[in-house]
Prior knowledge:
There is one protein chain. The protein is α/β, with parallel strands linked by helices. The chain has a domain at 125-223: D-Maltodextrin-Binding Protein, domain 2 (3-Layer(aba) Sandwich), CATH 3.40.190. Helix content is 39%, strand content 15%. The chain has helices at 2-17, 24-32, 58-71, 87-92, 107-111, 154-166, 178-186, 197-206, 235-254, 261-264, 270-275, 282-286, 292-299, 303-310; strands spanning 35-40, 48-49, 55-56, 77-82, 98-99, 115-117, 122-124, 126-131, 146-149, 171-174, 192-196, 214-216, 224-226, 229-231. The strands form five sheets. The chain has a five-stranded mixed β-sheet, with helices on both faces. A three-stranded parallel β-sheet has the order 4-1-5. Helix 3 (58-71) crosses helix 9, helix 3 (58-71) packs antiparallel against helix 13 and helix 9 packs across helix 13 (292-299). It is globular, with a radius of gyration of 22 Å. The protein starts with a helix and ends in a 29-residue tail after the last helix. Mean pLDDT is 91; it is low at 6-16.
Amino acid sequence: MRMFRTLLAALPLLAAALPALAGPTLEAVKARGQLVCGVNSGVAGFSAPDSRGEFQGLDADFCRAIAAATLGDAGKVRFVPTTYQTRFVALQSGEVDVLARNVTQTLLRDTSLGFNMAGVNFYDGQGFMVSRASGIAAAKQLDGATVCVLPGSTSELNLGDWARREKIRVQPVVLGSMDEMTTAYQSGRCDAMTTDASQLAALRVSAIRAPEEHLILPERISKEPLGPMVRHGDEEWRDIVFWTFSAMVEAEELGITRTNVAEMKSSQDPNIQRLLGVTPGFGKALGLPEDWAFQVIRQVGNYGESFSRNLGAESPIRLDRGMNNLWTRGGLMYALPLR
Length: 339
């Protein structure tokens, strides 16, 4: 019995000593020297090209974080813009290594489509935008309204479910892209448009004329946990993507930023030592260099830094952290332990 207890106690140490077997996706990324990341073609705050044509946003930052973790260089990313119709095909076919484009994580996408969820990097909910001139102040006042929505999205399904549940009638106007939906809404073809509330906030700032004349209604009609997806069959790659995001959240919890990460390597806090690779073994467990998380934080930053510059106080969108704040500040962001 004593021997059994000794072996049981040694299992975590034995596991940490074993290097992860490199999966096919990591091998492909290393061989080409570049991460191929599927992103949204243009949602401000998440992934949209700037004036120089370079993608910026929360999801674009996460692509760079994966590149920093796996290749040591956040710049080694090729962004592949995808639409609602092409996003899943791009991942299934192997055209992209990871899909990071504010995609809602659902049971059927996890099972029938053959994807693995790799964490939630933004908690959202579906909302409605209307013009202030319409006099609509609550979602139930949309009875009889035309509503612009994207095809093949959870928004389209949620709209139907919500209307049936509330026993009201809405007429969906299904448009092929976010640009088409925005144009139709502004032309008066739709009384309202619906998608994730964060996207509505981004569109109101970046794509809507006279944004002060438009209102995002207070109701949220769904849960929209958004996050990266990878293909089934490569658990090692899923682990890398998942723990890259967890490291960004952990860094914020521990007060590690882009500017202080180098000096933090001398900290005596064992949690910081493990995260930054001072205590070895955790990079090896992922099949990565021991400084993988250090590179992520040094080159991209922690989760809070990325949120602030892309969606929060440092951005034109100025979204409140809300549910996306750390759990210690009333939000839902909670890093799994690096042990």
